[in-house]
Write the structure tokens for this entry.
Amino acid sequence: MFPVRGAGAAALDAWLDAHARVVTSALRQVSSLHFGRFVLLPGREANGANPHVRPLLALESNFDGELEPHLGELWAAAGAELEPMLAQCAGWAPGGGAAGFGRYVRAHLLESSAFFSAHPGLTVGQVQADARLRQALGRYLDQHGSEPVGALEVVRRAQTALRLAGPGAGFELVPVDRGLSGRPRSTLGVLGAHLLALVRTVVLAVGHDLGELIAALWSDTKARPVDPALAARAGREEAGRLVNELTHVAELKPGSFRRATLRLALRVTDELARAAAFTGRLGGIDSIHFARWVLLPDGRLVFFSNYGGSWEAYLGEFIERASRALTMIWSNTEGFPATIAWVLGGARDEAGFKRWVRAHQLPAPLWYSAYPELSAGEVLVNAELRELLARPLDETSARRVLEVLRD
Amino acid sequence: MLERSDIQGLVLSGYASTPRSRFFLIRFQGEGARPWLGRILPRITTGTRRERRATERVNLGLSVTGLRALGLPEESLATFPREFVQGMADPERSRVLGDLGVHEPKHWDFGGKQATRVDALLLAYAASDTALDELSAELEDDFERFGLEVREEDAYLPADQREHFGFRDGISNVRVGDGLRLRSRNRFDPRVPPGEFVLGYLNAYGRFPESPRAPIRHGTRRLPRLTDARRAMDLGENGTFLVLRKLAQDVAGFWRFAARQGDELFPGEAGAAERFASLLVGRTLDGVPLAQDPDLRRSERDLNRFGYREGDQPTARCPFGAHVRRANPRDGLGEDPRDSLTQVRAHRLIRRGRLYGPPLEQREANDEKERGLLFMALCANLRRQFEFVQESWLNDPKLFGLTHERDPLVGYGPLLESADGRETFSVQAGAVRRRCQLERFVTVRGGAYLFMPGVRGLSYLAEP
């Protein structure tokens, strides 16, 4: 989150629009980058009780490995393009090269309060190699799938052929340790672990801000109207894309109690998300590649998500499968649909919730995806195919290969 | 309870007793729009039980340009949903709907360009061709009198209920739950709350749908109710959104293709073409769902009493990408069948489509005549219902664990890298899936988004 210089916001806006194409094509060389975006979070003049909020340039990156080498790669690929943009940011010293960029990013780094990845442990290279593997397997089965030799034998032969062809075709039949060892915590376990924290938050509130606590039992704040220009832009950019981005900025409701409940909700979500990484689906939603909430020091809650399919389908899944968890988080922010006791109502108000998300959405002018045609489910299935084919086959694993390969 | 006397009849009935119909695509000219609307108003068929026995019927939908021509102010138009205001031919909508390439609006017979825009759609239904001609003559007199430009499209309900490719159609049309009758005895076909189709009633989320507003007017007719603390009128109440799409079908091409593919997939078998075609559709020509146990002794009712999960073991009886499976996934979305059925309820459409063009006499012999479907669908939310079904089910290459295929009949979009340079349709009936070459035989030839107001809403628009 880079603070923007006094009058830099307008210049940045124009710059991002003008250079999005050049930068995204440069980012293709960054082998560690899954998804990345630059988006300007506008500031706000001080009015009444609300303090002045500075505009920020947000860089969100979902990357492999350590931060340092990733930033080095970013700079090497797109540094020349990024330099004029960073020149609009406060504290940026031009001419510092990769080292300067690294220092600057680290100085303004914000950890996410809750983070989800559907396919942790799979690098960009691996995801792309697995896609090639699946394609090669499909092609093999097109030619040899109908030979009357039985399922096990067909897959065995495919395995042999792929093992030979792989190195030349950009994939390998080797297992990958994704670091998903141990057992995920159950939802109940996570909730149980935080019960005490919840009780403490409530008890503290009774002591200090009883008014806020009571207000939170039934909360309904005035919604912000949708900005037609921003909605139009989001609609235009999303239409027809198979993988999409969502950048969303909400303002925390006033009071320390709201801050406490939000932090708690994010902590719970973060742990649930860690457990969900084992299955690749967060609260029953299987379309998300990466998602994160970041709580800014100025009281804004930013949500970054990279998901497959349409906005309408994504929001539908939010409402149908994860409304409680999302309400628990977002009911602490302004304009959210009427909520009872943090978790009830809220996102269940389908039209109101969708309107609220649109009203607070900032379409990222510069967004990059290393695999714009792959869904999260597909990435996982491709990886599973590789894992199955990397090991000696038996009847069960051969059947599984054929079952998941549906087209 | 539904206020039937204010709802246009097409919402509540498919008008089976008036199988002949003519659709008038109207362009308003000059000042004639409003007086014409006042003139046509008494003819509008409503959903009352008495009108169930009517021998001729008239319904009316208006597009955004039509509403504007009728003098509805911009502030009111802004309360209509974005996709309606954009119109079906907007490039953004085209990307959502997959109306690209040969399907692009610029090639359409109507609705794609300013010159062929649809301001209003007047639907006329009658029991016979002569009755329809008489009714049309009366309507046409008025068009002339008020100086409206009109294009006609004839459409009919086939006596054998088969669409042009030869499949029985309309078996699983939505049932609207009214009042107490919300429970369904068929768990695969839950009744859908009325607010999914008519504005002013509770929808699948237990909420009232968003409804367009209009500034308060006073007049001699019965006008819409006041709303928003008596600051506006509820123009949407008892209204519905109407989707019109003209889908041309190349029947001979389809069957020649099915014969070729059938021979390849089921060599030497009698009826191989039909078998292959059924796989694309997900039902046999007689409407029997492939997902169902083939040995079931079934009654008419059972044709709609099925889910997909049961038929997927050990291998899928009905291909995952089959048309009816994509259009209504029933229990087959995600992990949990019950969740799936609940979810599906929020994406249903009332289908009121009719055929145009004569049936093809001989299946594989092209007679060069135009034929197809004048697809019509009704819903309360274009984005969440019609567009969602088109974009996220029919046209989503990633649905059901597939990766690069789209609906074999009406899907369309750019080829994905994983498609390996060709469009395919996969059949998962054997141990190894078979990927068949796919060709396209349905082309979008026209379309429009319309709003069908309730009678009070129409009265409002007719008031000077």
